[in-house]
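Dear colleague,

Thank you for sharing your sequence with our group. We've completed the structure prediction you requested, and as agreed, I am returning the results in plain text so they can be pasted directly into your records. Please verify that the sequence below matches your submission; if there's any discrepancy, let me know and we will rerun it promptly.
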Amino acid sequence: MRIMAIDYGDVRTGIAVSDESASIVGDAWVMQSKRMDDAARVIADEAAVRGVSCIVVGYPKNMDGSVGSRAEKSERLAELLRPLCDADVKLWDERMTTLGANRVLSDVGMYGKKRKKTVDAVAASLILEGYLGTMRFGILC
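Please find the predicted structure tokens below.
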């Protein structure tokens, strides 16, 4: 069973996919995503090719738990994905993952254009790691 995590952005979208045993992040990359419907089709195609059974869409709620415009975009992406793929599509609270991704990249000395191209893949990896960690403790199916 493979799980895919998505960090959706207006320009770039981070994607991370677990290994076959759904225990670690196996692959992560960034795709250009200027149109949400195009991004949804590419994500659904990647999920099918990679045998993904669950897609976890990062759901960036505000710090007070309210739903803002970024979270609403994630809701729309999830709604677009559901009819396009056989995988279960879930929203996953991802507050602070981009901040965490930037911190990880700072710790390894990555700055500038290279960092900008990588941060979304790292954020998707952090979303996936959080989801997989919760699965290990039996909280999720």
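Summary note from our side: The chain has one domain: 2-136.

Kind regards,
the structure core
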